[in-house]
Each structure stands twice: as structure tokens, then as C-alpha cells.
Automatic annotation (TrEMBL), chains A, B:
UniProt cross-references to PROSITE patterns, sorted A to Z: PEPTIDASE_M32 (PS52034)
Key word Nucleotide-binding present: no
CDD domains per record: M32_Taq (cd06460)
Protein name in UniProt: Metal-dependent carboxypeptidase
The record's free-text note on cofactor binding: Binds 1 zinc ion per subunit.
Length: 504, 504
């Protein structure tokens, strides 16, 4: 018994060391993106590379292999406490992911994706898919090769999905997207044809950066982001990064010509951030101190960004503050008009600029293409044509050129496949969780009207956040909502909200 | 030959890895002191400890020992290029310093100094030297024991001096402080008795933090601190930290009731910072990318803080800017009066609050006591009495209590002995370097008046900064000034300046 305890302690210490390296790397990265002086960036990248290489070496070392081998022996494993069991499980998953690929093949992959990212950038600039095509073909082929090493699941694409959303399958996603397509596409088309386009001109006046920053701080504080355990800074692209639950950093970018960008992106990132701040502090320093999956993480950011901060009751509370902060810009603008402008639906070519309703359709296009590439029913050469056809069908838009179409995202060039669906899963989970939350907080809308966000936070901490990685997405969904993933809550929410807004 | 080159390359790579860890640790430390949210500090300290322990392990590892053994073999060493030779030399020095002490004794020392720091804090609060005394006795005894391990030089205290100011000896310091005592003490006494105390009331009006920050940025930019390779932030205690020459971070603290604190501390730290920014970029990533000694580093901060930024020509240039930035505070205040207020001499009990002239006398008190402790001619129990006697003799002040006397500095409790003299050496070197600079830039005062600081920076880079640790302090002094350390330049400078200011 004593030796098993000792083994568990040694392993935890070893794991904490790796985590400390990753933690340090994250601080260096945050600093690079928010504070580092211009000329210091190159040297910084080298240091980040040294540290992350070291962490990678440790997490795939002979020492790690030995620990995992001994700790996963049935008899030993059964005697471990739940936290150590989970730590072993997650470490083993990471180890297998990295070690099953022969080193030379992995190095080849790193090389190709590096080249591909550069080529993709050039291709997008020149609006020339042919430039990028051979690299994307190589990447797809390597993904297929790697899937064989990792072990193909029922669907080959499931192997990739599992890396970002553990347990997620094509079977489930097909159901989800079928429902989304059946219910959302007609809604989008109806909105396209409606003449209820809201006035958004007051959102596009001049909003001084400092005033926006102050208003964002006010909102984030009030909804429950803890500034004693976090910060809000600026960077080119908004992100959330954390170094344990007591140090969570958000960034945003202020567009002085548009009130909407910084505010909703800050709230989005704060949703990620509050998840991290609420993870049980007992997991600090362990890789369990982290949201359980990309999809569940995204559900928390989308909950705050959309279900809360794009709702009418939320603005019943905050609109007076907004009017006080920006008296000229919002003078004479009725709450109802502000609310409608905040929920403009406008099919566009670009995913990152799209609204709550059309967003999932952008993801669906990518999902269907990725699934086809990995199951070899679609060839890379056909992509521009397929992309544009699907965009027309789902969003009703004619993509004018590949740089605004199939070349718009960096993801594929850096080898990210199976990642896009987690964005939509975030929305699906968010609606499903919100449904459960409202059952226990039937006065949800009144709380928003009163600016009393503590019960929402308390509920999220208790049912979702505190567990960190201790519960899988499936366990979490089952425990919180009593069922597995179910897109009907999202569809109901979207239909109700947008039919009402556009009087359909 | 090939194998020696390979060995040198491998060693450099190994050394760079250690340096990367220390670099990362420095970023984490900077973040902790300037940006980290309150509740994130504990977890951060653990990560810093993990990384610095790892760096320490590497720099004292068997692998390091093997490298050093092979590279210091006469035949091999001679074939190395100058940079690698220096790298070997510095690494060997660090290795010996850390490895000659038996591990248990070093751990005991860490334990005792940790306890001593806490006890010192309590003793200072309670104004009770007896509380601290047994710990200081233990520390002195351990220093004596360690000196035996390291190897006693001509004077035992030389061994300690060498760790902060390589090559410095009691023999040299005795000469320096004798001259300082003979020439400065009578000057201080004369000023104490003069009735020319300048008016400083306008320095103690209200200066808004943001206005001070803007003015400091303006001054720092103009004197040549490169904000593309650096930053200025706020922290409780001002410091300068760097992660290579292209990322140098300064901090200051704004006292809204005193114009002087933030400005001159910013300029002081910028002096350190410009030294680091000017080190040859070829040494980036190596431990040679660093000022050569504490004393030479301090000479650069003191040069800018005192020789430049407390001079009349400097304020002939900047006073109009200051008046524009703070029109109410400086209304009707003549340049001459501002200059006199900036150079107030006022003997005080506290070193950190002391002026340019009396500062060295505070250091002299500490030097004489440390030397006595290490040579066992002074006992710890006698310290309060000896301290107060020396303060009376040199500065003419009656120390009212030990918390304002012998208990004021943290240094001894954390085992720093041999460090204090480098502060005065900084002033000595600064005057000596300035003398040499003025020979080559005879229009020095005109340059200040014109706000043209580039020639000063250029000279400093060419003669001092660029070499980093490649030249020892002795080599540097000899090459730049044609002689070894000589305090008469400082004494001449102080006598001329303060006799003039106080009309003596």
C-alpha cells in the first residue's frame, strides 16, 4: 500500500512539474501578445519554444511511460484516489496521442504544417487556392496516416473529433447538424427576405477606447468575473488564457468605430474565464484545472455572450449604464432598437463576423467538408466548388472569391481538423445547460433585469465549473441535464428568439 | 578540431537552455510584481520556484561538470573562441560557487536566511535588535564557514566582495572609503551648519500620477531609453529587469505628494536599462548578455540619475517641459531654485532616502561593519552601538532607535554581505567614467543643454555597454580611463558641485 501511495505522489509531482512548464509558457505567451516590446518578440519566441519542447519531452519521456505502465495496472489503478486516476487517464491519453506517431513522421508533419501556414497566407492574399491545394492534400494524407496509428474508430473522423471533444462522434454530429439545417436554414432565408432589418447606425459611431474599456470593466465585474483573480488587457485577437484558477487573463480589441466588437468579445472571453476561475482550487497545478472540453468551454462563453448578454432583460439592466457612458451615441435610441441592433442577422461570407443564428451554418459547411475529406468522399481539388455551393444553399450567399470563401480560416493549414464542430457544440450545450438552469432558476429573466448575476454564476460553478476535467462532457451533460447532447434546445431557443425579433 | 567545435557548440546549447529558464523566470517575476492579480501570486511563486530550481540543477549538474572539465583543459581551452572561453569561465565560477558548499550546509543556510528574514521583519517592527541578533550571528558564522569552502583570499571579506564585484578587494575599498571619509565628511558637516537649505516646497505639491507618467516617458525617450526594446511600468519598489537586450523592463512608483521620487528613480532604472539595451546582440541568450558587475551597473544608473539628471545643464533643457507639464506647481519657481531643490543635502538615518552626497557615508558604515564581522574584530552584539557611533561621526545624526538604524536594511537577513560596497563603487566608477567621457566630449554640458543625449549614449555603448560580461570591471576601467579604480574623480565632482551649491 505504502509503495502505491508513494508512486502516486511521485507521479503527481512529476505531472505538476510538466504543468508548471506549461503554466510558465502560457505567461510568456500572454506577455508576448499583450505587453512585450516590439523588438523583444523574436527572442521571446525562442524561450517559449525551449520551455514547451521541454514540457513535451517530459510528457512523452521514458519516465512518464514507466509511471503510466505501473499506474494503469488494474490492481494499482483501483487503489488510486479519483483525482490521481483521472490524472493518469489524461496523461495516458496525451502520451498515446504523441507517442503513437513515429518521431520522423511527426517531424515531417510539423514541417509541412509550418510550410502550409505560410503558403495558406500567400494563397489567401493572392486569392489562389491552387497554391494551397498541394499542401492541404499532404495534410489530409498525413491525418489519414495518423488516424491509422492512433486507431480508427467507427468513423475515421471520430478519431479526430475525440481529440478536441472527447467521446464526440459523427453519428451524434450528423443528428445535430441535420436538425440545425432543417430548422435554421429556412429561418435564415426568411430573415433574408424580410424587411425588418434593424437600424445599426448608432452602433457604428465613434466610441473612445478608454470609455469602452471602462464600460467593459463595469459589465465584467458585475456579471462576476473576479478581477482579483484575473485581468482584462488588449491584443490583436481576443483570447482567454489562465495560469490556474486564481489567475485568468482575458484580452479584447477596441474598435473605435464599432461599439459591438469589444463588448461582446470581452463578455465571451469572460465566459471562458469564469469557468476557469470556478474550477475547484484543489486541482490547481494539475492538468485537471481546465475546462473539460473545447465544446463545454465554448458553451460557457456562448452562454454569457448570447443567452445572457444578447437578451432583452440583460439590456433592461445595462442599457441605462450604456447610455450614461455614451450619451451622445445612444441619445434617443430606444432600448428595443438597441436590442434589435445587438441581434442583427446578416448572412456573410466570413465566419468570424457572423451572428448567433448563421454561425452554426458556417460551421456546418466546414464539418461536412472535413468529414468528406477524412472519409475520402471529397477531394481537396473540389473544395472551392463545394464550399461555394454549400454557402449558397445554407446561407443564401454567393461567395465572390476563395479568399472570402474556402481560404478564410487558418485552421486547416495548421492541421486542425475535427476542431470546428466544437464551436457549434458550444452553442448546442449552452442552450441545453440554459434550459436546465432555468428550471432551477425560474426567475432567470428577473435576475438579469435586476443585474443579479450571482445565482447564475453559483449554479454554473456548482453544476459545471467546479469539476474541471474530472467529469467528461458526457458525464457533465447527463448529470446536469439528464440526457445526452440534444440540439433541440438550441433550435427552440433560436426559433423563438429570431421569429420574435423578425416578426416571422 | 571537429570534436572541440562540436563540444563548444553542445556546451553553448546547454548553457542557452539554462539561460532560457532564467529568462522565463525573470518574465514571471516581472509579471508577478507589475501585472499579476492579487490572488494569483501564491501559485505564481510555486512556478517560479520550479523553474529556478531546474535552472540551478542544470547549472550544477554532472553534465555541466563534465563540460567544464573538458573545456577547461589547457589545450582545449586555448582553441575556443573568446566568447566560448568567457562562457566557460563564467559558468565555472557559478559552478564552483554553488558546488563547493556541501548540499546539507547550503540547505541549512537557505533555511536560516528564510527564518532570519521573517525575524528581521519582526525585529524591525518591534524595534528589538535582540530578536534578530542570534540569527545574524548564525549567518555570519555560516558565511565564515562558506569562505573556508570557497577559499579565503588575502582578506576573508575579499571572497565575498568577489561575488558581486569580481576582483574587488578590501585593500582597494579601504583606500576609496578613506578618501571619501576625509573629503566628504567635513563637507557634510559644513552643509549641516550652513543656512543655505534650499526651498523644496514646490516639489511636495500634488502631482497627478498620469501627468508624472507622461513626463517620465518624455524624459526617458529623450535620454535614449528605447521603448521598442523596453517598457516602463509601476511596482512597489522600482527595479530594472531584462530578458536579453531587446526586452528591458523598468518600473517606478508614483508618489503624488512628491515630484522627485518617480522621476529620478525612473532615470536611475533607465540607466541600468540602457546598459542592457546596448549590450552586443550577439550575446543574447548567453549569460554574457548582462552588465559585467554590480558596481559597473550601478555606475550607469548613477551617471544618468546624478551626473546628468541632477545637473544644471540638464534642467536648462528640461525645465521648460516640466513647467509646461506642471504649470501650477512650478509657477514662479526659478530654474536655479529647482536645481537647488533637486540637490538638497540632508543627512538622514535612512540610506534609501539619502542624497547623492551622504549616500556613500551610509555605505561606509555598512562596509566597515561587514568587514569587522567577517574578520571577527566586531561582534554582532555590538552592532547597534557601533552603528549609532559611526552615524554620528560621519553624518552628524543621532539615530533615535534601531529600527531607524542597524535594522533598516533587509540585506543581512537574506545573507547579502559584500554587496553594499557596490553601491558606492557605482558612484566612484560613474565619476571616473564621466571624467573620461568629458575628455572626448568636451561639449558635454552643451549637449545636455541642447537635449542631445545621443553622443553620451553612443560613447557609453562603444566604451562600456557593448561588451556585456566580456570585459571584467578592471579591464573596462583600464581600457576606458587608463587607470584602475580611483575615487578622486568622485570626490572632486562632489566637492565642486556642493561647495558651489552651498557657497562653501
Amino acid at each position: 500500500m505504502g509503495t502505491i501511495n508513494q508512486l502516486a505522489t511521485d507521479f503527481t509531482t512529476f505531472s505538476k512539474k510538466i504543468h508548471a512548464y506549461n503554466n510558465a509558457t502560457a505567461v510568456l505567451y500572454w506577455d508576448l501578445r499583450t505587453k512585450a516590446p516590439k523588438k523583444g518578440m523574436d527572442a521571446r519566441s525562442e524561450v517559449i519554444s525551449t520551455l514547451s519542447t521541454e514540457a513535451f519531452k517530459l510528457s512523452t519521456s521514458k519516465q512518464m511511460e514507466d509511471y503510466l505502465q505501473r499506474l494503469t495496472e488494474e490492481q494499482t489503478y483501483q487503489q488510486l484516489d479519483a483525482v490521481t486516476q483521472k490524472l493518469v487517464e489524461e496523461s495516458k491519453k496525451e502520451f498515446d496521442l504523441n507517442k503513437k506517431i513515429p518521431t520522423e513522421r511527426y517531424q515531417e508533419y510539423v514541417l509541412i504544417t509550418n510550410q502550409a501556414e505560410n503558403l495558406w497566407e500567400e494563397a489567401r492574399e493572392k486569392n489562389d487556392f491552387a497554391l494551397f491545394r498541394p499542401y492541404l492534400e499532404k495534410i489530409v494524407n498525413m491525418k489519414l496516416e495518423f488516424i491509422d496509428y492512433w486507431g480508427a474508430k467507427e468513423d475515421k473522423y471520430d478519431t479526430l473529433l475525440d481529440q478536441y471533444e472527447p467521446g464526440m462522434t459523427v453519428k451524434q454530429l450528423d443528428q445535430i447538424f441535420t436538425l440545425l439545417r432543417d430548422k435554421t436554414v429556412p429561418l435564415v432565408h426568411a430573415i433574408n427576405e424580410s424587411n425588418r432589418r434593424p437600424n445599426i447606425s448608432f452602433m457604428e459611431k465613434h466610441f473612445a477606447k478608454a470609455d469602452q474599456a471602462a464600460f467593459n470593466q463595469l459589465v465584467l465585474k458585475k456579471i462576476g468575473f473576479d478581477f482579483q483573480s484575473g485581468r482584462l488587457d488588449t491584443s490583436t485577437h481576443p483570447f482567454c488564457i489562465h495560469f490556474g484558477s486564481s489567475d485568468v487573463r482575458l484580452t479584447t480589441r477596441y474598435d473605435e468605430q464599432d461599439f459591438r466588437y469589444a463588448l461582446w468579445s470581452s463578455i465571451h472571453e469572460a465566459g471562458h474565464g469564469m469557468y476557469e476561475q470556478n474550477v475547484n482550487a484543489a486541482y490547481n497545478g494539475l492538468l485537471l484545472s481546465n475546462g473539460t472540453s473545447m465544446g463545454v468551454h465554448e458553451s460557457q462563453s456562448r452562454f454569457w455572450e448570447n443567452m445572457v448578454a444578447r437578451s432583452l432583460p440583460f439590456w433592461e439592466h445595462f442599457y441605462p449604464d450604456a447610455q450614461q457612458a455614451f450619451p451622445e451615441q445612444f441619445a434617443g435610441v430606444a432600448l428595443e432598437d438597441f436590442y434589435r441592433a445587438a441581434n442583427l442577422v446578416e448572412p456573410s461570407f466570413i465566419r468570424t463576423e457572423s451572428d448567433e443564428l448563421t454561425y452554426n451554418l458556417h460551421i456546418m459547411v466546414r464539418y461536412e467538408i472535413e468529414k468528406g475529406l477524412i472519409n475520402q468522399t471529397i477531394e481537396v481539388g473540389e473544395l472551392p466548388q463545394i464550399w461555394n455551393k454549400k454557402m449558397k444553399e445554407y446561407l443564401g450567399v454567393d461567395v465572390p472569391s476563395d479568399d472570402l470563401g474556402v481560404l478564410q480560416d487558418v485552421h486547416w493549414s495548421s492541421g486542425l481538423m475535427g476542431y470546428f464542430p466544437t464551436y457549434s457544440l458550444g452553442n448546442v450545450y449552452a442552450a441545453q445547460f440554459t434550459h436546465a438552469m432555468k428550471k432551477q432558476l425560474p426567475n432567470f429573466d428577473d435576475l438579469l433585469r435586476a443585474g443579479d448575476f450571482a445565482p447564475l454564476n453559483q449554479w454554473s460553478r456548482e453544476h459545471i465549473h467546479q469539476f474541471g476535467k474530472m467529469k467528461s462532457p458526457q458525464e457533465l451533460l447527463q448529470d446536469v441535464t439528464g440526457e445526452q447532447v440534444n440540439a433541440s434546445y438550441l433550435v427552440d431557443y433560436l426559433e423563438k428568439k429570431y421569429k420574435d425579433l423578425y416578426q416571422l
